[in-house]
Design brief:
alpha+beta, 37% strand, elongated
């Protein structure tokens, strides 16, 4: 995915405010062996790009002032508290031979085919929606798939259960839960009520016979 920017000469709060009023977004690119560079980007193009999941977890080609592309990662975005406006954006340069740490989204599949859902009408809760991984830029996946086809009630899916792509490892010293299946409280109460009614029915039958 390509990102087009130009060098930003003026800095400071006032300069950034004036820049935003012209439909631009101030930003910076840093990292690697080069010095940090202050940049500006078209707000509308950037705003629509940010709505794509892959923009947040892919290696991007950043072109500055029409010159050669630099491979970068999106590292930080500052949004207006209530307007649909990007206030500032940070990119980090990456090198092909150096590993990077990135938060990658999780895509859950086959929950509807799991025993928890099909046999017990359970609700599958996604405890985590992304995990931090480390890998070389060439091995960076846009997302990681989590197959829930074998999930049963009372069991959870942990990070260690994920099938990771080649060259990718998870950055964690623990083994947190990322998904679990729970039977809704209403369904449990309904089942308990049904069992109570069924148990009471035989006791009521003899009284009816005496009449």
């Amino acid at each position: 995915m390509k990102v087009i920017a130009t060098t930003r000469e003026l800095q400071g709060t006032s300069a950034s405010r004036r820049l935003r009023n012209t439909g631009k977004v101030p930003g910076i690119v840093y990292g690697g062996t080069k010095k940090p560079v202050n940049i500006e980007l078209d707000h509308n193009n950037l705003f629509h790009a940010l709505r794509k999941e892959s923009f947040h977890s892919s290696i991007l080609d950043l072109e500055i002032d029409g010159k050669g592309n630099q491979q970068v990662l999106l590292r930080d975005v500052q949004m207006h508290p209530f307007k649909q406006q990007v206030l500032h954006i940070d990119f980090q340069r990456v090198a092909a031979d150096q590993k990077i740490n990135v938060d990658v989204p999780l895509h859950f599949i086959n929950a509807e085919n799991s025993p928890a859902v099909k046999l017990n009408a359970a609700v599958v809760s996604h405890v985590a929606t992304e995990i931090e991984i480390t890998c070389l830029p060439a091995d960076l996946p846009e997302f990681i798939t989590v197959d829930l086809a074998e999930l049963t009630v009372g069991h959870s899916v942990h990070v260690s259960d994920i099938q990771l792509p080649a060259g990718v490892t998870v950055v964690t010293t623990e083994n947190p839960v990322i998904a679990m299946a729970v039977i809704p409280r209403g369904a449990i109460e309904e089942a308990a009520s049904t069992e109570t009614t069924d148990a009471a029915a035989p006791a009521a039958a003899p009284a009816a016979d005496k009449k």
